[in-house]
Amino acid sequence: MLILQLGEPLPDTDGSRPAVAAIGNFDGVHLGHRLLLQQVVAAARQAGRTSLAITFWPNPRAVLRPEHWQGYLTTEAERTALLAALGIDAQLCLPFTEAFSTLSPGEFVDQLATAIPLAELWVGEDFRFGHRRSGDVALLRTLAEPRGITIRLITRHGAPTGAISSSAIREQVRAGQVEEAAGLLGRPYRLGGSVVSGDQRG
Predict the structure, then answer these.
(1) Cβ atoms of 108 and 132 closer than 8 Å
(2) Are 81 and 119 in contact (CB under 8 A)?
(3) Contact at 8 Å (CB) between 18 and 118?
(4) Closest CA to 8 of 143, 115, 122
């Protein structure tokens, strides 16, 4: 999978083959994310286009509400590997800063449209964007479609306990409910770290 920085073009793209993209934090790349991203990959392949995941790092909540931030389910590298395993062709990671958070909905869409040619943008039904999350899906469609970008909406994937979200999975992990978290992730939860020497009392 190709990793793009802001301003870098898609390979072999002159604007005539715009991408089919999904946008989100995709922390954990859980079952709901996978449902969305698999449809993006299928739509891109059917149209002969590049499938693209537009992500953010750091997570907006870690920047704007650090006192309430519960931590990541996946590192940036782990998230990239999980996206690649789903068949996504390229990832554009937008650096999220306090300055970025002040962009109006219109400025946000302008930056996206300028950054990379898009044919379709797939979002969840609760997608919010722009300063103070002031933009919703209806406004996104109003702003994007005059720029030739079709907005595709996907309903949030549910589970017996309710809608799947990264926040809910974080709470389960923090509560030690790792089996429940694995059911929503679609795989066992993993925690990475370095092996270090202890006090050698064993």
Answers:
(1) no
(2) no
(3) yes
(4) 115
Cα-based distances in Å from 104 to 89, 115, 128, 172: 29, 16, 12, 34
The dihedral built from the CA positions of residue 66, 60, 42 and 126, taken in this order, carries a sign that is positive
Q: Is 146 exposed, middle or buried (0-12, 13-18, 19+ CB in 10 A)?
A: exposed
Type of residue found at 124: G
The candidate with the shortest Cα–Cα distance to 109, out of 130, 84, 134, 132, is 130
Give pLDDT tens digits along the chain (202 positions).
Answer: 999 887 777 765 444 578 999 999 999 999 999 999 999 999 999 999 999 999 999 999 999 999 999 999 999 999 999 999 999 999 999 999 999 999 999 999 999 988 889 999 999 888 999 999 999 999 999 999 999 999 999 866 555 445 789 999 999 999 999 999 999 999 988 877 677 777 777 6
Cα 97 to Cα 116: distance, rounded to the nearest angstrom: 20
